[in-house]
Fold each of these.
Amino acid sequence: MTVEIQQARETAVRRTPKKRKNQLPIAIIVLILVIVLAVVFGQISSGLAVAWIFGVAFGVVLQKSRFCFTAAFRDPILTGGTSLSKAVLTAISIALAGFAVIQLFALQSGKGVPGAVNPVGIHVAIGATMFGIGAVISGGCASGTLMRFGEGFMMQWLSLAFFVVGSLWGAHDFGWWQQAVISASPKIHLPSLLGWPAALILQFAVLGGLFFLADWWGKKRNQA
């Protein structure tokens, strides 16, 4: 009887949910630290203070939204979830509209197309494939890795270290790629090629089609 009572107590202890620690004091300390550093950076340069505040705010948004480009492409296949996929497509659509306005105003003022129009070639496919494989294995893209690094995930600490190594390696070999492949690849600027109306309609049509495809796929997988 005593053994049964002891087992029952151990079972009850295991089933009792752990009380969550109050993290409000830590949050207050971090907030004060952020403000103090913003003031210090502001004394050095106003741009540095703005960059610091924007970086902190961007990190909070990433952590709360769990926004990750890798998950946007991985989840539809592995879990059937497409919420992040639709979020990425929405973000790209907003960026497309914003950059189109900026470029149109720049062209009307005679300044030319702002921004870099980079060549498209086999180097893009090779880089995208290598980065995609690495991102899926490590569990995150650049934004997801930084966000989980801040949360304390040790796997992302290792991923960030090799992220830096890979970036340095890529920078070291960039000259060869530039001479052998990139310089010979064509530069494609759709508005210059098709005209602004046709280019914008085509891009929004592709993004809209992908959005509805992702929405259909998510509903289909959830019903299965």
Note: The first helix runs from residue 2 to 15.
Amino acid sequence: MFSAPDDATAQRMRTARAFACTTLTLTDLAEEPIWGYAGRTLSGAVAGAQGTGWLRLVAERPDKAHGKLWDGPKTAQQMLPPEIPRPVLHQVHDRQAVGWAYRAELYQHTDATVISRSPVLEHDPALPDAWWAQLRTGLDALAEAATERIAVREEYIRRAVPQYTGRDVGDIEWSTAHGDFHWSNLGGPDLTILDWEGWGRAPIGFDAAQLHLYSLPSPTTAARIRQTLAHVLDTPAARVAELTICAQVLQAADRTPFYRDLAGPVKGYLDTTYERTR
């Protein structure tokens, strides 16, 4: 949910999307496709032989078109259990052209609507009870999934948490996480979890902590998250996850508007929840 990039990038991505639609025998239905950060992705509805779908186009320099982020959606489709509600990835098509690598990912189309255009929630979305039950079930299933992928590196945690929060890290317990679990990646009224690029191992409670902290501007929703995910968030192991999310927000506050707006509530949460150790 980002603004369109510069004209040259926008034209290059639109051309690549049109090429992908031709290659995959798809009709582009997106009058206003959705841009990712800095024009790295371009997504929107398409129609094909199997009906309506969703085409996500990703661009990288060829030397970076591999590894965790590049292969995240494909490995999520292959490895994660069906209890985790997400669109089915039907097809992947790779192409290189003029210094860029492109990956077209054709997904099942869902009727879910993204809950917020911003990762940070500023209003109560009034989600049904079933959505909250699906949230708990889905995160519990994800936490138990086996993987060697890394969503958050221990080196980063042990450096950033003391630097940006003034708290010590201590022992870290790990589970599997989505890794970017915010309101722009969640749909409703039936829960749908989008954007599986960065999934992998993270401190226990990482996704729950991120969703809670990104909801602080909406106290009603933040309280509902604490209630629904108390079995994770109210454990000692979740402390590291919360501190890591706080560090990420405070680190990026000077360069990203929604982090800047969230920095104040996060600092307030830190001060009322965790005693400063340095």
Note: Residues 113-273 form a domain with the Aminoglycoside 3'-phosphotransferase; Chain: A, domain 2 fold (CATH 3.90.1200).
